[in-house]
Amino acid sequence: MKEVLLDADRVLAGYDAVARMYPFVPSLSHWRAWEYAAYQRYRIAGSVLDLGCGDGQYFRLLWPDVRDVTGVDASEPVIELARRSGVYTRVHHAFAHELPVADASADAVFANCSLEHMDHLDQVLAEIRRCLVPGGTLLCSVVTDRFLSWSVLPMLVREAGGEALARQALDQFIAYHHLVNPLTVGQWQRRFTEAGFTVEEHVPILPLYNSGLFLLADGAWHVKQGDGELGDSLYRAFSANPGFTAAFRLIVEGLLRMETDWRTGSGAVFAVRKAH
């Protein structure tokens, strides 16, 4: 497996691209910036299956020239957004371990930040392999075990309120994200290999300092506040400040200058291929 490292210029270019979509949600623009930078190494074409498609807007940003796209998602409200997006030729409301898609019908499968949330991972990978043509590509981003071990909010809660509250904060974080597969890079590689794929490349994303800010911002955003989340109040405050998006870019730039180990991240992008 070839390891490919990003650089600061690519990440900042990624931020410039995605910040137009998420200008006032800093954790989302931060994470998506790294994914965008990694995905720029690759091209997908032909018939594409977008697994965990969401509303389709990030797919269109990444792959504006891909037109034969089938979207799959398990969330009915999200599926309605996907159907209205104009991105997909077909949209299925289905679980990834039971895909209503014909054998060898996809040239590529794209799974952006979705596999870590999926129950029955081995069945999901088997379904992806079934749907791909021989030699077809799976391109995906996932979280790693560092997504939990580097989580800042539980650390702060531990210092303020003790171990029990810290565990509660971490459990709530895991439950909110339905994080069932926070695997190491090596474990992800083994799962792909055991499912009949050849792992070609791995791109680490969000090393230590970038992960620290992302995980703190994401954890704080989803803290319950009344009938909503703290993020609702933060969004109103950030969107009222016309300089916010550019200023947050400077924060990301500063974090990039601090990184000393780009080989370990709380996320990873994998390019794998179905064996013939």
Summarize the structure.
This protein has helices at 8-18, 26-39, 57-62, 76-85, 121-131, 146-149, 152-161, 163-177, 185-194, 208-221, 230-239, 244-258; strands at residues 2-3, 48-51, 69-73, 90-93, 106-112, 132-143, 197-205, 224-225, 228-229, 267-274. The chain has 276 residues and is an alpha/beta fold.
Largest sheet: 8 strands, mixed
Please report the total strand number as a whole number: 10
Report the top-level CATH class: Alpha Beta
| Helix content, binned percent | 40-55%
Write down the Rg. 19 Å
Taken in chain order, the helices and strands follow as EHHEHEHEEHEHHHHEHEEHHE
Protein name: 2-methoxy-6-polyprenyl-1,4-benzoquinol methylase, mitochondrial
Keywords: Methyltransferase, Transferase
Organism: Usitatibacter palustris
Domain Methyltransferase type: 49-140
